[in-house]
Amino acid sequence: HWCPPCRGFTPKLGATYSKLAESQPGQFEVVFVSSDRSPEEFQEYFASMPWKFAATFQDAETRQALGQLFGVQGIPTLCLITPDGHVVAMEGREKIMEDPAGSNFPWGSLEPPPAPEEDEAPP
Fold first, then answer.
1. 98-122 burial: b if 16+ Cβ within 10 Å, else e
2. Residue 54: strand pairing partners
3. Which pTM value belongs to this model?
4. Closest CA to 90 of 82, 81, 98, 99
5. Using a CB cutoff of 8 Å and minimum separation of 24, what contacts does 2-9 make?
6. Which of 45-49, 81-85, 111-115 has the lowest mean pLDDT?
């Protein structure tokens, strides 16, 4: 794969993913969003991953929208979010590197912060 940091991180994420899939089935899932340069590179790289979900290479609109939504500045980036879209941690890559066994999963609060009262200004 053309991205050296990705080559280093993806196997670590894969190992953590596999550990969590075994110890906490259905509680952690990865959706791969590609920055590959061609559909062939995407297919080859995605085939090496243990997870099954991805925004396909051909779906550039979704890939770009996700990058903007989560403020992706570089790769690899891992954002930890709940199924309803609550951001648990924007620094998911660091969480995996610090805790490759997944002992501290989910690495943040699964509950969104309380909504401000109507008469309160947001912080």
1. eeeebeebbbbeeeeeeeeeeeeee
2. 32
3. 0.84
4. 81
5. 2/36, 2/37, 2/41, 3/35, 3/75, 3/76, 5/75, 5/76, 6/75, 6/76, 9/76, 9/78, 9/93, 9/96, 9/97
6. 111-115
